[in-house]
Amino acid sequence: MEAHHPFDLRGKVIVVTGASSGIGRQCAISCSRVGAKVILIARNEVRLGETLSLMDHSHHRILPMDLTEAAETEEKLAALKDLGGIHGVIHSAGISTTLPLRNISEDKLSNFFKTNVNASINLTRLLTRPGYAAKEGASVVFITSVMGVVGEAGKTLYSLTKGALVAGAKSLALELAPKKVRVNCVSPGVVVTPMSSSAVYSQDEASLEKIRSYHPLGLGEPEDVANACVFLLSDASRWITGTNLMVDGGYTAR
Amino acid sequence: MKDKFIESFKEALEIDRPITMSDKFRDYDEWNSLGRLSLIANLDDQFDVTIEDEVFQKLITVEDLFNEVAKRAAAKN
């Protein structure tokens, strides 16, 4: 038997949310390439199936659910109990918008927190219960954003929720360390995905050029984010917890 | 519908004075990228209307914009 490589995920069960598209989809694919058994979560079963068809190996499993429905999530995740333990979670499900302050209603604020924050905490709580997280330890990765650290006009809702996760991850890291559960964030800059292509800054060439100029290494690809996540899930990062890894082509370097 | 539209339009651009339908809205001091985003959000929230960028570029006056919104809102009913 060959020696275990610290960067590979063979023998690990990894839950990936938002696995139906963009960064989440690539995370599922990348985890499969390095040997993980992946549990794919998102609302849309058909698109989860599409992700599955792009993955290596056939031992993965799709688990369609709406993570904003706490009770439904708890019920569906029960299928993961006593699987032998979950070794990692990449939580990529989330929403974004560009909306000026004048349009931020109480409803929009609640909806953003419900989707980007409440669902993340609920998921983490459920998956770190006894019988869920692997006894030898687990790694939780929140996909956050450069907008959780720096700002931009119109990004208040997104910044509020991503910043909440960046802050929350530190306390979670301390609280869960005795269970050998690590909690980290990966904060991407603008990555070419369905979410960013539908964003207002992608609607005209001038805005897109401005966004590009903020990234000294150019816009990112989903693989760039997925590779950082694989590292944080692997044993290679076993001494890393409570951090926020900027994967942003240099966006926040200036 | 016209009154509702004008109110929504002024709210998006944060204009606190009377406006005229023949005004070229890009000439307003208040017209900027955030105002435009706010307008897009208001049209979507209040009229369930989305206007593609290439169509929007051809709208010059407040009246042009109103007519486009009215046409699209009517098509939904």
TrEMBL record, chain A:
InterPro entries given in the database record: KR_dom (IPR057326), NAD(P)-bd_dom_sf (IPR036291), SDR_fam (IPR002347)
One Pfam family cited in the UniProt record for this chain: adh_short_C2
Domain of life: Bacteria
Gene3D superfamilies xrefs: NAD(P)-binding Rossmann-like Domain (3.40.50.720)
Residue ranges of domain Ketoreductase in the record: 12-153
Family of this protein: Belongs to the short-chain dehydrogenases/reductases (SDR) family.
This protein's name: SDR family oxidoreductase
Lineage: Bacteria, Pseudomonadati, Bacteroidota, Cytophagia, Cytophagales
From TrEMBL, chain B:
InterPro entries per record: ACP-like_sf (IPR036736), PP-bd_ACP (IPR009081)
PROSITE patterns in UniProt: CARRIER
Domain Carrier: residue ranges: 1-73
Domain of life: Bacteria
Record-linked Pfam families: PP-binding
Protein name from the UniProt record: Acyl carrier protein
Species of the source: Chryseosolibacter histidini
Upper classification of the organism: Bacteria, Pseudomonadati, Bacteroidota, Cytophagia, Cytophagales
